[in-house]
Amino acid sequence: MLNVSRLHWWRHRLDFDDCGSNIEVGGKLWFMWKNELNLVIDSMSEQHVTMRIVDNLQLVFLTFVYAKCNYQEWCRLWSHLEAFNCTDPWLVMGDFNIIRHDGERCGGRPRLATAMDDFNACLDNCGLIEMSYTGNSFSWCNGHQNLSRSWARLDCTLLNVAGMDVFSEANFLYLPCFMDLVSRAWQEESNGSGLLRLAGLQLHIAELEARIQELENNLQDGYSADLKSDLLLSHLELSVWVEREETRLAQQAKQTWVQKGEANISFFHAVSKKIRFLIKMMRLGDGTMLTSPKQIHVSVVDYFHEFLDLSGLIDIVITEEDNRALCRVPSSQEVYDALWSIPVDSCPGPDGFISGFFKSCWHIINSDMINVVAEFFRGGCFTSVLHCFLFGPYS
């Protein structure tokens, strides 16, 4: 179930005055609005929310849909829509998780004919017609590769006759294709380049932590309601970003305990105390007492250096030429070959993407990826996020 506090955090972040959701009835819909909008929630279920808006004395009903994926739930949703059927302007939009006919899909298994017939019957009974649209013909893809890949148009906007009279020139725009979105996102400005560019998430967390520390110091110097509000919002934002980082680690490692991960300081230290034993003092054979970690370290190294003198027993196998070859900066082709050697269905990285993402978007991201690898081999510093990206979370 979605967190209500996070809903309010996003409302504040996006500068809306009020918000609501169907979380209490088991749904996943969020909606936000400004105070100048005269909005009243009319009805809701776990699959829809209907609201009425009065604008310039014109009453308009809006229904947002996020449908389930099984036949019984669809039938419940169609019943809700048919029961509400009205003669005022009415717009219905969202993810219906069903198509009207096989022409709205490409690939995949045929859809249940009975489900499509029921959907069409509901639209006829409610007098709903699809709004004209621009953009992609399909709004959903199963993400599979090769012959198992399929597309469908599960999202649409519908309106009744009264709605068509009021919004005669309305048009529904589908989002651009995936590659266009990746290209635009990758071209956005970011702090630094190379390793720093890929470390954006952790850098943002560090900035938030510094901001929280500064706000706490300012509050100690002099109380202010604005400072306290800012501090609470910063704490909430920090928790959101930390959870995102932990989610990425959990996705990569696929380990239950990483759900609370090393980013959760209290959890990490609690685990560490159970598995780590620290030697604070040591008595040598001659009675000398070592009382500091440095003394203990030096003594242990000296002891084993004398005890395990392996000089002359190990042949030199790696030559200086081999060392130089291992440490040189890989070529672009070598980076490419290394990426393409990773299976498409491999475990996701810290960013949540599998290798298939990097392969399919290689023409967009190749320059940055090659620069990251080159910077690493030149001795560039990298954060724990990049450590996971390059080596995995437990290396």
Task: Please provide a written account of the structure.
The protein has a 6-stranded mixed beta sheet with strand order 3-4-5-6-12-8. The chain is about 45% helix and about 15% strand. The protein has helices at about 5-15, 70-85, 115-125, 160-165, 180-185, 195-200, 200-220, 225-255, 265-275, 295-305, 320-325, 330-340, 355-360, 360-375, 385-390, and strands at about 20, 30-35, 40-45, 50-55, 60-65, 90-95, 105, 130, 135, 140, 150, 155-160, 170-175, 280-285, 290. The longest helix is centred in the middle third of the chain and has 29 residues, at about 225-255. The protein is an alpha+beta fold. It has a domain at about 35-175: Endonuclease/exonuclease/phosphatase (Deoxyribonuclease I, Chain A, 4-Layer Sandwich), CATH 3.60.10. α2 packs parallel to α3 (about 115-125) and α7 packs antiparallel against α8. About 15% of the residues are buried. The chain has 15 helices and 15 strands. The two termini are about 35 Å apart.
